[in-house]
Fold this sequence. Notes:
Thermophilic metalloprotease-like
Amino acid sequence: xxxxxxxxxxxxxxxxxxxxxxxxxxxxxxxxxxxxxxxxxxxxxxxxxxxxxxxxxxxxxxxxxxxxxxxxxxxxxxxxxxxxxxxxxxxxxxxxxxxxxxxxxxxxxxxxxxxxxxxxxxxxxxxxxxxxxxxxxxxxxxxxxxxxxxxxxxxxxxxxxxxxxxxxxxxxxxxxxxxxxxxxxxxxxxxxxxxxxxxxxxxxxxxxxxxxxxxxxxxxxxxxxxxxxxxxxxxxxxxxxxxxxxxxxxxxxxxxxxxxxxxxxxxxxxxxxxxxxxxxxxxxxxxxxxxxxxxxxxxxxxxxxxxxxxxxxxxxxxxxxxxxxxxxxxxxxxxxxxxxxxxxxxxxxxxxxxxxxxxxxxxxxxxx
Length: 368
């Protein structure tokens, strides 16, 4: 039962992921009324820490949240282009941000013009950038909408989603992530190969960031900001991506000197085109990630989980994270950061990862 595990779930959010401390101002947001039990428990634990919750429930229109149908449908162009100094001032005064995701309908924005969504991304980019400068965590509550999206019975999805947080051995995952980081940090080039993909990605001069329960819940990845202009080749992704209510599947990308020079999708190619053409930075890749969480063993159409699957990689179109960058080098800037997952496990057809021509992973299993 979810109710019996909420306290443990909230404890991981407050203590480990958001690292809430006495005196912190905590921006606390939930996107579904079904998530109220977790929202309330997190709020209670924040108060017990001697911190101050600033509650935002369901609606947070001017911060850049895009799964609000009424705002995205009814707002005028003037409203969509209006930057909220009030919201920026609030965000600047926060010490931690806790966002509890959980959709009731993942198709909420399926009929919204992508140009409106793109415009809103651009308007609110600075607020979202300010948010990720804080101690932040994005968690997922197992709503019935997410269960349906995942093609799982509600009860099974609840166990799956909560197990991915409270049953993961975070110390063991951190140790494995550090080991993987050292293998990749020692190299300059990552090559990913299968019968439909052959792509080389430069990580020369880069250091990986290990993700083991500090920001995403669930978590489990090792990720880089690749050298912007040194990605070449072709990649075909395994799974559909759901973005703003639109499902895009069969995604294929071609790169020359880092830039996406050709693309296609079997479904919703026009939406893919809109995403790539959001701004100049969205023609480049901001992240190469390696999934490391073996507790998450299936694709559920929700990137927060899917990009963490042990034996997968993902690439993000757009924004690179500053924490990945060497001193003095600017990160690729974009109003989007859009992750797409490729499964290299044998069950998905298999694949290989090379670091400087040395095979380090085959069919999703580490062989270094």
